[in-house]
Amino acid sequence: MTKIADLKKRLMEDPTFKQEYQAAEGEIAIIEALVKARTHAKLSQADLAKKIGTTQSAVARLEGGHVSPSLSTLRRYAEATGARLKIDIELTTD
User: Fold this and answer.
1) Structure pTM?
2) CB 17 within 8 A of CB 24
């Protein structure tokens, strides 16, 4: 059985895959940060939805990566979970 790390390493040798993966990396990091903030705050999706004035299904779509959140949505999400919104742009050396 192939380990995920080995598979990723092999796939990253393909320039097209590597480019697509790197493009999605930021979105994946945002989703992981959102879920981590909510679970750290011990909030369900429904609880968080009430705090930010939306529905549980909207929070699920946000955490599932099905929508691109606005800065104001990210700010409200962070405030509701007791977290701080921090945005960073990293320069590449390519």
Assistant:
1) 0.75
2) no
- Dump pLDDT digits (tens) for 45-57: 999 999 999 999 9
* Residue-level pLDDT at 90: 83
Residue for token pair 């989703």: 31
Tell me the DSSP string of 45-75: HHHHHHHHTS-HHHHHHHHTT-S---HHHHH
Q: What is the CA radius of gyration of the chain?
A: 16
CA atoms of 44 and 81, how far apart (whole Å): 11
Cβ atoms 85, 78 nearer than 8 A: yes
